[in-house]
Amino acid sequence: MHICNKITVKAHEARLVYNLNEIMKVLTTIATIFMPLSFLAGVYGKNVTIIPGAGTPWVCCRMLGVMAVIFIGMVLCFRTWTWFQAPEPRTAMLQALYFFFCPVK
After folding, report:
1. Which domains does the chain have, with CATH numbers?
2. Which residues, at least 6 apart from 62, have a Cβ–Cβ distance to it below 8 Å?
3. How far apart are the C-alpha atoms of 33 and 78, rounded to whole Å?
4. Which of 25, 51, 68, 89 has its CA 20 to 30 A from that of 96?
5. Residue 86 region, left (φ>0) first, then alpha (ψ -120 to 50), else beta?
6. Strand, coil or helix: what is 34?
7. Hey, CA dihedral for 75, 52, 64, 61, is it positive or negative?
């Protein structure tokens, strides 16, 4: 196999791995946001009376408020940590590497 073809294949594989990492980052973020909400919904979905606030008429509205605060807080944290931004296009860097190692004749 010619050296240019090997470099092209490696560059393509690197791009695929990068895309897969970005997809996994998004899925992890979504799972992290919804995990505490699912836990609270599971706990307060039980028909027991020993849970704090289970006998009050506004427990549903209160729990929805708590869940909304948790959701908004986690989304703001992830936006602060720049986990919700689009990835940078790296195709220009890969093309530059390709043309550096495989000059056009």
Report:
1. 3-101 (1.20.58.340)
2. 53, 56
3. 9
4. 25
5. beta
6. helix
7. negative
Distance, in Å, from the CA atom of 27 to the CA atom of 105, rounded to the nearest integer, reads 44
Backbone angles phi, psi at 91, to 5 degrees: -65, -30
Question: What is the distance in angstroms between the CA of the first residue and the CA of the last residue of the chain?
Answer: 18
> What sign has the CA pseudo-torsion 17, 18, 20, 25?
positive
In three-state secondary structure terms, 62 is: helix
Per-residue model confidence as pLDDT tens digits over 12-24: 888 888 878 877 8
7's CB contacts (< 8 A; 6+ apart) are 97, 98, 101, 102
Residue 56, C-beta contacts closer than 8 angstroms, at least 6 positions apart: 62
Q: What's the predicted TM-score (pTM) here? A: 0.62
